[in-house]
């Protein structure tokens, strides 16, 4: 047995009990303490505000072409005196404003896609875990099978047949991503079903519906939210890829992926047209991943004590005689 | 071996489902004639094509014919590939069988995906092991950063950035194409980024797990040098999750190659597939998808075979599905 | 084959093989620094058998791991001195220390099944260090493995040398472990609860094997255990640890005849009598303190039936009770004459 | 930037010199992979860049004088208004070893121009169907079913390939070109490149009237497909390629301050237009002249030319001043959004359904910068109050839509096709016929099969003008061009320049037919 394990294994055990009563305030405090997660969360919040209020907040009309102000580099000023934080594109449109509006499309595809696949997947997963039997068997087979297929490829093919566009993207994402949710929802349901509170609810004659809605689901929220966050990131990346290949969002609607595809033409003269939207995707996905990692750690009963207790200061001298 | 036999049959079933799916999407949701000729084709042209493709037959019969053709390796002919005429005109001539064209492109894709995987795998194992040996050190942080970044970055964008830096700015490597090893560097690096991050993360956590096991302390206690403790004792036991993730990543690589090939004009199956989708070349697209998907299924199967070799303890008949 | 050591007599006081001076081990945890071993000193003479007794968490394993250089820093911190043949193990280079391990000091573990690498054949593991140090061929290493397996009395060794650990029973695994430890003829064998995980009959076989091997090779044996019975039968001298400190140290006969610490007494009273004498087993009330929640004063005082006020405030030092017998209790005089 | 005008080579002087053995590989980064390498594709450089090095035509156009010069034919004469008689060069062999006989040439011409073949070259088809027959061992008569004053021009478009291949192995004709040119086709690696090697038996090595600047051949010509402009640019910069097609204006500007490579530009025969549906199956609002006029005045043409780069603003017509039929009295439509708004208001007041009109601005994705161009056109139209929809389509979707048989299915249509077209003929005749003549539904392969304009009176005048030649033809065409200017049917968006990036080791002059010809590449000293 390793020394560390023998000596600390006993510790978290006690902390679990203490942690049950953790409040939102404790979470907030823990978030404030974790600088990386905090910055990520703030970034995502700002992004959501920027996307939702793009039409009010954007410094320029994203579609306003100004052929006199083409290819203004980042932090540059156009001849007509307009300042452009991230520069302008080949039509003299303000890149920052376009990114904000693109965020709206990219984010809503990510959110809606994750939401739809989540609803479908969780419903199926919970039912499978709750009723077991043939339903579960079939479902899990379908999940295994679909997970083994290359989803981007399938998405491309379906979009090729039914045509690109926003609504079709959501449809495809629902079709190809529900499995992740179903798999997790099922295993969570199986875990919880054996717990005493479900048995107790059964014993007092709760209906299946009631048990699922009031007992089962609320207890599954945190891991599912983590998964949901991760899926948003995955979908934003998928959307970018599909749009890049010309099978996603179509002009004049614009998403970050489409902006990269367009900027590609000017890669040697106006690098920012490719770099900026790509960086936006990268930062967003990174922030989502970081927040998800944090949320997973903090809602995991085995790990969370680590996050909810203040860390030992660095370089604190080791005093053996203390 | 009953387990492997079962896995084999499962893979066959999956392949069958996939092929049926391609049929359903292509024939029932979509109208092949319309797909191939575009929305503005005339009725006469559409009718002629439907006649030629046997689309006026009952659907079940079409399905049987489709399956029968596939079984013989016949994915249909392309009226786009190598034709300057309008499709309706081209119908008068015979068309090019698509499968050989797809297969012709496979080696390029294999070369790219293989190089990327070997590179990513070797580096990921070293990085992951080092990170597990020195938890919370800079190398551990590096692995964390790489793995987080790799799942957050858009592959094709990374490729473009590499082009900007190494080709456009520094002029060190070609921007794309196929031929020498120089052509391989950037696309392979681009493609390797994601598996590098994912595999190193898994190596790290699997190795952390293994390194805390008693047999490691025992090995150290008997005086086994540290490199051997890590790279022989622990790594061998951590191989199952590592192989699993590597298999998954190889599947991902085959699809990821599609985008990377597009960015770097790498003449693999992916480029062909995207091209044929653009040209509305349904038979070619179908063949491309079936071939790539079949490869993915094959890789998954190969991973399962690898388990039996890697861990003597594994009782294949009792093992459940992989996570 | 190394020359046999002359058997030890109580009168002779040869130069110690291993001397541990004020060994301290602590760990960084999210709760702050936790002390696992707090100032332990002892010596081991060639060929001697030392028993270290304590409940789990008393620091007995950690202390030995520290001696072997197996504690990682961070999060671990090791202080004090461990002199092997006059050389400090703690400050020497890792490469030198690694040479010591296996060659001079070997260790076997509690759960042999999990202490063996499941992915390597037992033959490979037994002869691994031998092969690395002696730079011999694969075949020679295998021959050595078979030889060692014969020595630890694993039947049909030749045919089983290429088996994996999971194909062996618990007892056989322990034998494999022992064979592994013997590969380089070490001077000291540390056995960390070598029989705990085994059936009673198998326990006896393993202990007999260890005793035989020790007699044949004349190596010193450090036996870590919580099983007083085992100690009574096997060791020359015993050391009782509680909460990371030595509370009593004595030749084994003295320890059983005149235990001078309330904890030792408690332990002995909770032991089922081998002679089968009737009488209730007395468990010690309470639980050992968790690391990091060490009581002030004497760590044992919350559970001690003899505690006085002084125990709460002041930690007792080890005091001689008789020749080669020490105990750490404020009431040691009263206890001895009790 | 070097403006290079092509000069006819003094081949006579060179012919006397001893031939150096072919050496080296010349790599050209081209912007697209050919759909095929059929001989018919020679008519348009963008079909298969470089193919003209393998396949030759009977006659060619001198880019400087606009006159026809001999290639595979050494002489030609008019027999009547439907027939041209050509005398072929002696001793020419195809790369497969067969001789270029009169029969072989006749087979080629009939094959390529036959409406049954339905080749894309039909966009340059004349008023009648062209056929050819051998009238002697080295004599061919080409005739049309209708009077065709532009017959010689059509012959400059016609690539001549091995007749044996056409007859015995027509399928291979599309992938393995067998011509008579200075390079023989080697290999086409799909998705990557195609190559050709020096033809030691090329007639031009010994003939005194061969075209081109040099007879020094490269061992290998290599055409690498690189759709990425920046990739082509980088290839020339790094020496990976010796020449790159279609550089962006930014690339050209960057080349100026750079060692190692430079940019060569010059006028081309290509123009970008916006063809607006207006008569056949068109949305009623577009049939109103004021609405069309409003659209024409809504665009900032200078801005668009600037956006495209390597382009200039046209003079209110789809051609350049050196062309026969160019009307110098015209000027480009003025960018005047206020006028547009006013016109639209007037139209609205008269009950024209301006607000129900959604102009679909559609580009073909092979057109350079088409995404930006369509977007900015959409923007300009929206600015004056016209609803738009932007679309960039693949050739396979786009092409059928711009042929009249596609119109009816989408009626009422309000499409503005943004498209690049080439006019190699040096005059407005084919241009007017192809773009403005009333489309004939019954003849979907006819010359005007993609026209948007329909005016019987105009057609009559055009038909007459096309039978004329010389000054008369010029005057008649000028009048028609002037008339069309006031009809607002097709927006002349930009005249495109042609550009190449070239490594410093070489000089290149624009040769005959506006093609990339390796014989126009000389090693710089």
TrEMBL record, chain A:
Q: GO biological process annotations for this chain's record?
A: peptide transport; protein transport; transmembrane transport
Q: Where is the ABC transmembrane type-1 domain?
A: 103-292
Coiled-coil ranges per UniProt? none
Residue ranges spanning the membrane: these are: 36-58, 109-131, 152-180, 224-249, 270-295
Subcellular location(s) of the protein: Cell membrane
Keywords attached to this entry:
Cell membrane, Membrane, Peptide transport, Protein transport, Transmembrane, Transmembrane helix, Transport
Membrane topology, as annotated, equals: Multi-pass membrane protein
GO terms under cellular component:
plasma membrane
* Protein origin, superkingdom: Bacteria
PANTHER family noted in UniProt: D,D-DIPEPTIDE TRANSPORT SYSTEM PERMEASE PROTEIN DDPC-RELATED (PTHR43386:SF1), OLIGOPEPTIDE TRANSPORT SYSTEM PERMEASE PROTEIN APPC (PTHR43386)
Give the protein family.
Belongs to the binding-protein-dependent transport system permease family.
Spell out the protein name for this chain: ABC transmembrane type-1 domain-containing protein
Which source organism? Pseudoponticoccus marisrubri
From TrEMBL, chain B:
Q: Which family does it belong to?
A: Belongs to the binding-protein-dependent transport system permease family.
Topology within the bilayer: Multi-pass membrane protein
Q: Which organism is it from?
A: Pseudoponticoccus marisrubri
- GO molecular function of the protein, one example? dipeptide transmembrane transporter activity
Taxonomic superkingdom: Bacteria
The UniProt entry's GO CC annotations, sorted and at most eight, read:
plasma membrane
Q: What is this protein called?
A: ABC transmembrane type-1 domain-containing protein
Q: Where are the transmembrane segments?
A: 12-30, 110-133, 145-168, 253-274, 286-310
All copies of domain ABC transmembrane type-1, residue ranges: 106-303
Name the UniProt key words of this record, in alphabetical order: Cell membrane, Membrane, Transmembrane, Transmembrane helix, Transport
Q: Quote the subcellular location field of this record.
A: Cell membrane
From TrEMBL, chain C:
The record's SUPFAM superfamilies line, in alphabetical order, gives:
P-loop containing nucleoside triphosphate hydrolases (SSF52540)
Q: Which GO terms describe its biological process?
A: peptide transport; transmembrane transport
Asked if the keyword Ribonucleoprotein belongs to this entry, the reply reads no
- Mention any one GO cellular component term assigned to this protein in its UniProt record: plasma membrane
ABC transporter domain spans which residues?
18-268
Which CDD domains does this chain map to?
ABC_NikE_OppD_transporters
> Where is it located?
Cell inner membrane
Protein topology in the membrane = Peripheral membrane protein
- GO MF terms on file? ATP binding; ATP hydrolysis activity
UniProt KW Metal-binding keyword: no
Keywords assigned:
ATP-binding, Cell membrane, Membrane, Nucleotide-binding, Transport
Where in the sequence is the signal peptide annotated? none
One Pfam match, given by its short name, reads: ABC_tran
Q: Mostly located where?
A: membrane
Protein family according to the UniProt entry: Belongs to the ABC transporter superfamily.
Q: Which NCBIfam families match?
A: oligo_HPY
Q: What is this protein called?
A: Methionine ABC transporter ATP-binding protein
Identify the species of origin: Pseudoponticoccus marisrubri
Upper lineage is: Bacteria, Pseudomonadati, Pseudomonadota, Alphaproteobacteria, Rhodobacterales
């Amino acid at each position: 047995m390793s020394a560390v394990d023998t000596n600390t294994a006993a510790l978290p055990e006690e902390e679990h009990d203490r942690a049950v009563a953790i409040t939102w305030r404790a979470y907030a405090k823990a978030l404030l303490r974790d600088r990386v997660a905090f910055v990520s969360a703030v970034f995502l919040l700002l992004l959501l505000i920027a996307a939702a209020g793009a039409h009010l907040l954007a410094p320029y009309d994203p579609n306003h072409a100004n052929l006199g102000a083409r290819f203004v580099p980042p932090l540059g000023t156009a001849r007509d005196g307009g300042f452009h934080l991230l520069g302008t594109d080949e039509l003299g449109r303000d890149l920052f404003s376009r990114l904000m509006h693109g965020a709206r499309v990219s984010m809503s595809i990510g959110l809606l896609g994750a939401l739809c696949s989540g609803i479908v997947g969780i419903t199926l997963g919970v039912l499978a875990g709750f009723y077991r039997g043939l339903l579960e068997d079939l479902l899990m087979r379908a999940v295994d099978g679909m997970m083994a297929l290359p989803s981007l490829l399938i998405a491309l093919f379906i979009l090729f047949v039914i045509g690109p566009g926003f609504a079709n993207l959501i449809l495809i994402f629902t079709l190809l991503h529900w499995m992740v949710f179903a798999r997790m929802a099922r295993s969570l349901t199986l875990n919880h079903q054996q717990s005493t509170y479900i048995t107790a609810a059964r014993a007092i004659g709760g209906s299946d519906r009631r048990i699922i809605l009031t007992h089962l689901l609320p207890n599954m929220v945190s891991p599912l939210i983590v998964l949901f966050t991760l899926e948003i990131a995955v979908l934003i990346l998928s959307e970018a890829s599909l749009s890049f290949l010309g099978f996603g969002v179509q002009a004049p609607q614009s998403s970050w992926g489409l902006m990269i595809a367009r900027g590609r033409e000017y890669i040697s003269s106006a690098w920012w047209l490719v770099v900026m939207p790509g960086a936006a995707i990268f930062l967003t996905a990174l922030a989502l991943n970081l927040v998800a990692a944090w949320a997973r750690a903090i809602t995991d009963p085995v790990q969370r004590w680590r996050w909810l207790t203040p860390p030992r200061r660095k370089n604190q001298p080791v005093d053996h005689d203390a | 071996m009953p387990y492997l036999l079962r896995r084999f049959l499962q893979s066959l079933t999956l392949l069958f489902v996939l092929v049926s799916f391609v049929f359903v999407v292509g024939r029932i949701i979509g109208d092949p004639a319309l797909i191939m000729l575009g929305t503005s084709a005339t009725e006469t042209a559409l009718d002629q094509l439907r006649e030629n493709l046997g689309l006026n037959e009952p659907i079940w019969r079409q399905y049987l014919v489709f399956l029968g053709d596939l079984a013989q390796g016949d994915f249909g002919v392309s009226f786009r590939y190598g034709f300057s005429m309008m499709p309706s005109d081209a119908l008068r001539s015979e068309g090019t069988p698509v499968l050989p064209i797809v297969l012709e492109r496979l080696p390029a894709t294999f070369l790219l995906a293989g190089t990327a995987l070997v590179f990513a795998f070797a580096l990921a194992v070293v990085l992951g092991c080092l990170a597990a040996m020195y938890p919370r050190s800079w190398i551990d942080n590096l692995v964390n950063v790489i793995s987080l970044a790799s799942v957050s970055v858009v592959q094709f964008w990374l490729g473009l950035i590499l082009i900007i830096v190494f080709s456009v700015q520094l002029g060190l490597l070609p921007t794309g194409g196929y031929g020498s090893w120089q052509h391989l560097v950037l696309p392979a690096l681009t493609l390797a980024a994601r598996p590098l991050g994912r595999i190193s993360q898994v190596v790290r956590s699997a190795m952390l797990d293994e390194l805390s096991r008693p047999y490691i302390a025992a090995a150290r206690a008997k005086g086994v040098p540290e490199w051997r403790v890590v790279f022989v004792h622990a790594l061998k036991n951590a191989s199952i999750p590592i192989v699993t993730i590597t298999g998954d990543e190889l599947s991902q690589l085959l699809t990821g190659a599609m985008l990377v090939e597009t960015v770097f004009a790498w003449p693999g199956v992916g480029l062909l597939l995207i091209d044929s989708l653009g040209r509305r070349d349904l038979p070619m697209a179908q063949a491309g998808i079936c071939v790539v998907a079949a490869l993915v299924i094959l890789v998954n199967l190969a991973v399962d075979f690898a388990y039996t070799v890697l861990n003597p303890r594994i009782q294949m008949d009792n093992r459940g599905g992989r996570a | 084959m190394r020359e046999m050591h002359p058997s030890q007599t109580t009168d002779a006081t040869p130069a110690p093989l291993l001397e541990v001076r004020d060994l301290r081990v602590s760990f960084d945890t999210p709760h702050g620094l936790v002390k696992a071993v707090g100032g332990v000193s002892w010596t081991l003479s060639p060929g001697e058998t030392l028993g270290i007794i304590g409940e789990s968490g008393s620091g007995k394993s950690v202390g030995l791991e520290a001696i072997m250089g197996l504690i990682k820093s961070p999060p671990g911190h090791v202080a004090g001195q461990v002199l092997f043949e006059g050389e400090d193990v703690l400050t020497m280079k890792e490469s030198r220390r690694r040479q010591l391990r296996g060659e001079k000091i070997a260790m076997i573990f509690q759960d042999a099944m999990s202490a063996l690498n499941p992915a390597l054949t037992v033959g490979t593991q037994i002869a691994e260090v031998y092969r690395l140090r002696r730079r011999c061929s694969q075949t020679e290493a295998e021959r050595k493995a078979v030889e060692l397996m014969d020595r630890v009395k694993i039947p049909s060794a030749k045919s089983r040398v290429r088996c994996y650990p999971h194909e062996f029973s618990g007892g056989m695994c322990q034998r494999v472990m022992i064979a592994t430890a013997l590969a380089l003829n070490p001077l000291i064998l540390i056995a960390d609860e070598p029989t705990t995980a085994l059936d009673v009959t198998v326990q006896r076989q393993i202990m007999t094997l260890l005793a035989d091997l020790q007699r044949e090779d004349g190596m010193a044996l450090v036996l870590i255990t919580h099983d007083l019975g085992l100690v009574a039968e096997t060791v020359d001298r015993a050391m009782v640890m509680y909460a990371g400190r030595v509370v009593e140290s004595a030749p084994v006969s003295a320890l059983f005849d005149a235990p001078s610490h309330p904890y030792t007494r408690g332990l002995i009273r909770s032991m089922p009598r081998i002679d089968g004498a009737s009488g209730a087993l007395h468990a010690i009330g309470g639980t050992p303190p968790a690391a990091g929640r060490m009581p002030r004063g004497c760590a044992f005082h919350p559970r001690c039936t003899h505690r006085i006020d002084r125990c709460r405030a002041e930690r007792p030092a080890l005091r001689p009770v008789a020749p080669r017998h020490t105990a750490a209790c404020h009431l040691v005089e009263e206890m001895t004459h009790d | 930037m070097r403006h290079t005008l092509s000069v006819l080579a003094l081949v006579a002087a060179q012919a006397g010199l001893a031939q150096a053995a072919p050496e080296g590989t010349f790599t050209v980064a081209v912007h697209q992979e050919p759909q095929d390498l059929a001989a018919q594709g020679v008519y348009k450089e963008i079909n298969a860049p470089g193919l003209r090095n393998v396949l030759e035509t009977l006659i060619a156009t001198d880019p400087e004088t606009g006159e026809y010069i001999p290639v595979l034919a050494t002489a030609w004469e008019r027999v009547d208004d439907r027939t041209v008689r050509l005398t072929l060069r002696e001793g020419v062999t195809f790369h497969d070893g067969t001789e270029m006989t009169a029969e072989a040439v006749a087979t080629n011409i009939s094959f390529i121009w036959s409406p049954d073949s339905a080749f894309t070259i039909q966009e340059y088809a004349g008023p009648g169907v062209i056929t050819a027959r051998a009238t002697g061992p080295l004599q061919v008569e080409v005739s049309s079913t209708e009077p065709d004053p532009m017959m010689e021009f059509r012959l400059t478009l016609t690539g001549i390939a091995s007749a044996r291949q056409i007859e015995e192995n027509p399928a291979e004709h599309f992938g393995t070109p067998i011509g008579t040119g200075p390079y023989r086709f080697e290999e086409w690696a799909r998705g990557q490149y195609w190559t050709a090697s020096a033809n030691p038996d090329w007639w031009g090595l010994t003939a005194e009237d061969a075209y081109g600047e040099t007879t020094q051949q490269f061992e290998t010509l290599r055409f690498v497909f690189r759709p990425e402009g920046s990739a082509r640019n980088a290839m020339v910069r790094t020496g990976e390629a010796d020449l790159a097609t279609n550089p962006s204006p930014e690339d050209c500007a960057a080349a100026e301050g750079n060692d190692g490579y430079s940019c060569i530009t010059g006028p081309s025969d290509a123009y970008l237009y916006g063809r607006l549906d207006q008569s056949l199956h068109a949305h009623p609002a577009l049939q109103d002249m004021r609405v069309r006029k409003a659209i024409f005045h809504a665009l900032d043409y200078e801005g668009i030319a600037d956006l495209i780069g390597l382009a200039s603003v046209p003079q209110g017509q789809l051609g350049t001043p050196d062309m026969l039929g160019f009307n110098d009295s015209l000027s480009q439509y003025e960018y005047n959004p206020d006028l547009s708004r006013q016109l639209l208001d007037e139209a609205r007041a008269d009950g024209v359904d301006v607000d129900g009109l959604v102009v679909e601005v559609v580009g073909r994705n092979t057109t350079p910068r088409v995404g930006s161009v369509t977007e900015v056109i959409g923007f300009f139209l929206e600015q004056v109050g016209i609803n738009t929809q932007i679309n960039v389509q693949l050739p396979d979707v786009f092409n059928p839509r711009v042929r009249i048989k596609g119109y009816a299915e989408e009626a009422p249509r309000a499409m503005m096709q943004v498209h690049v077209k080439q006019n190699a003929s040096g005059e407005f005749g084919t241009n007017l016929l192809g773009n403005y003549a009333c489309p004939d539904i019954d003849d979907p392969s006819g010359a005007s099969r993609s026209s948007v304009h329909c005016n019987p009176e105009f057609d009559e005048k055009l038909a007459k003008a096309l039978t004329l030649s010389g000054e008369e033809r010029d005057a008649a065409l000028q009048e028609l061009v002037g008339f069309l200017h006031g009809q607002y049917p097709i927006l002349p968006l930009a005249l495109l320049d042609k550009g190449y990036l070239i490594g410093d080791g070489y000089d290149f002059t624009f040769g005959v037919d506006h093609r990339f010809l390796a014989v126009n590449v000389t090693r710089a000293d």
